[in-house]
């Protein structure tokens, strides 16, 4: 083996630890290299209070200008994992082109929402977010460290012991909603134990502790730090979620069990968490449905049970373009069952829906798959806007972080969004309208020259990688702001540029639940007359 091959293999080995898409070089080594002149974040950022105060001050300010009325009984938050602003522009173009038009003038379902803002996605210890620290921000209302879920930045990643201190624990907006008597649910196309959905119900010093063996293999006491799948079934608020739909069956079954699709479980503690979930619901005398295929999901639509657990794949759901449409539900179909199940609570609900594989496709430089997963998200949002009234239901669509896909060149109007740029490069070698700053699509340059990627054997296939500048086994996230689209009560509170950790506070404000200020109990519109009355009364007393 040449030295070069050894180095490449060593790099791959590092990146594979934990998660194929998110190598653990994130945060650690890079930070050390930069440490010399790097100012540290404020100590206060390690506390929950810092981010709560930051959000409440912003809400106070914005509420004074807001003309919003009413109360969001229902709230649906849609999250496109890695759905950067260029991803939106390219996806809408692809959508239009698939319909036979030029494409650029097309619109994703949520792009017509009345309010749009930008959220700042950095985390406490990292300029560019991973999906765990960002999920903690947009679901629990406080920024934290990269790789950490549901805990403040006082907990270093991997540190189980630090996470036992309850002052570091954060409650998610699902817990706030349930405490208010509403129902809550979660839907994703990734493993249900993956970072974004786990932000709703888990507290974990490491996002990769999805099943028992991933905790114990790091010599962590599993009696103290439970794996994420276990938390979903047995800890609050996971054990109160009415709807749980996604992938990741293997994290729930023992490695001695083979599931309905012939896939083996991965747990080594012998526990069958699906059976435990079932017996728990049975002991509550509730109706329930555990399902693993599309026909069971469709059957449940007619008469949704009290609780539904759907795990449609051993790991992540397949990409929509590659899925067997007869057995795998779409994000839109899962969203429909979720809303129809949760809608029965008269007090309302909170639902989190993630199109999680936009991120994975970008990490592999698979532009078409990333755009198609974005279009799937647009379809799912359409289901929600059709089922829920603008009068009483708030819908928020956003992303956790960006990616480094660029939409570039001087392609003519209507040019194939997945094709080569019609502009010319200085070296006269073709380049794509969509390419990446880094990732596995980086091509070797044997003679120092770029190669013509349009001559690749699989050029045009959905798993053809667009070209990238910097070679990396997995393309990285981007640090740019991401869009926030809002429709429904108090949508105008979501305009502006703000910290991502404000999002759950803003949603709870609109819904009148949770720890902060509520739209329906406060605000100038109500306070002014009361104040006037007090002043008038005092004047009268003084005259007497
Ligand atoms: C299941 O896990 C146990 C404990 O780690 C291990 O000894 C056993 O070989 C595994 N079985 C299979 C079929 O992988
Ligand atoms: C469930 O139903 C059984 C029999 O009807 C009853 O004895 C039990 O108390 C019920 N449990 C709960 C939690 O309601
Ligand atoms: C779908 O799952 C149900 C059990 O929930 C099973 O009875 C049925 O055979 C499955 N259908 C297919 C097509 O695998
Ligand atoms: Zn990612």
From TrEMBL:
<keyword id="KW-0378">Hydrolase</keyword>
<dbReference type="InterPro" id="IPR017850">
    <property type="entry name" value="Alkaline_phosphatase_core_sf"/>
</dbReference>
<protein>
    <recommendedName>
        <fullName>Alkaline phosphatase</fullName>
        <ecNumber>3.1.3.1</ecNumber>
    </recommendedName>
</protein>
<keyword id="KW-0862">Zinc</keyword>
<dbReference type="InterPro" id="IPR001952">
    <property type="entry name" value="Alkaline_phosphatase"/>
</dbReference>
<feature type="compositionally biased region" description="Basic and acidic residues">
    <location>
        <begin position="466"/>
        <end position="480"/>
    </location>
</feature>
<dbReference type="InterPro" id="IPR018299">
    <property type="entry name" value="Alkaline_phosphatase_AS"/>
</dbReference>
<keyword id="KW-0732">Signal</keyword>
<comment type="similarity">
    <text>Belongs to the alkaline phosphatase family.</text>
</comment>
<feature type="signal peptide">
    <location>
        <begin position="1"/>
        <end position="18"/>
    </location>
</feature>
<keyword id="KW-0460">Magnesium</keyword>
<dbReference type="Pfam" id="PF00245">
    <property type="entry name" value="Alk_phosphatase"/>
</dbReference>
<feature type="region of interest" description="Disordered">
    <location>
        <begin position="462"/>
        <end position="481"/>
    </location>
</feature>
<keyword id="KW-0479">Metal-binding</keyword>
